[in-house]
Write a structure and sequence with these properties.
Helix content is about 40%, strand content about 15%. By secondary structure, the protein is α/β, with parallel strands linked by helices. The structure holds NADP nicotinamide-adenine-dinucleotide phosphate. NADP nicotinamide-adenine-dinucleotide phosphate binds near residues 9, 10, 33, 78 and 134.
Length: about 220
């Protein structure tokens, strides 16, 4: 698959880019600054001995078959405002968690209920939005020497899109767990606030979550 990662110069996007490139997918790292994306793609690719390319967020979204959002919640409106056409009929994966550091409340969802639902509103009904990868820490994605000990909880309204996301997760060794419609994105995103608090409390870099009781263990 050809995957475009908007905000892919950051920690989460770079980690996903590496894992997917290693699994044989073609990945474009996107950025507000195309040159920054190209420099990042070259450096990451050379380090991990995989082929990555870089482009502006707009070009990455336009060229990609699957669009992945790895940018802060505060940047969604400005980034997606004019990408409705580029994302039409495409699977759009939102990894975005609306966190606010340094205030009284860590989890600060938008009025839509979740960042993924904000994404759906910004891109319109024709974008096939799936919320996923919120619990897969950038630190774990970057540590290719061990398997990631976390389930891929995901939700969305398009069954085929969710199957594709599950395949993308399996391609990096994750067990995918379908958690229902996009209205469950808020609860999923909020778990990351809990994991971030656990990381701080226990001095960890990448706590995760696993569901018990599923068929197959
Ligand atoms: N880090 C994790 O472990 C983790 C885990 C799960 C989910 N997530 C989610 O993944 C997303 C990215 O996390 P991250 O840690 O990679 O964040 P980050 O490094 O702070 O940001 C990622 C990229 O977003 C772009 N960006 C920054 N501010 C922006 C703005 N106002 N508008 C548009 N683009 C902006 C930047 O790229 P350019 O300057 O090149 O455009 C930056 O490199 C967040 O929503 C986070 O909640 C992170």
């Amino acid at each position: 698959m050809l995957i475009g990662i908007l905000g892919g110069t950051g920690k989460e996007g770079a980690g996903l880019a590496l894992r997917w490139a290693e699994a044989g997918h073609e990945v474009i790292i996107g950025s507000r600054d195309a040159d920054r994306a190209r420099v990042k793609a070259e450096a990451l690719g050379a380090e991990a001995k995989v082929k990555l390319s870089g482009a502006s967020n707009r070009d990455a979204a336009t060229r990609a078959e699957i669009v992945v959002l790895t940018l802060p919640a505060s940047g969604l409106a400005a980034t997606l405002g004019d990408l409705k056409d580029a994302c039409r009929d495409k699977v759009v994966i939102s990894t975005v968690v609306p966190l606010t550091f340094g205030g009284g409340r860590l989890f600060t969802p938008p009025p839509q209920g979740s960042s993924a639902e904000e994404v759906q509103e910004l891109l319109g009904a024709e974008a096939r939005v799936v919320a996923a990868f919120h619990h897969i820490a950038a630190h774990e994605l970057a540590s290719a020497d061990h398997a990631i000990d976390c389930d891929l909880l995901h939700c969305g309204g398009d069954a085929e899109a969710k199957k594709l996301v599950a395949e993308l997760g399996r391609s990096m060794g994750l067990r995918a767990v379908d958690t229902g419609p996009l209205t469950n994105a808020g609860p999923l995103e909020s778990i990351t606030a809990v994991l971030a608090t656990i990381n701080r409390r226990y001095k960890l870099k990448g706590s995760g979550i696993k569901i018990t009781g599923l068929p197959g263990g």
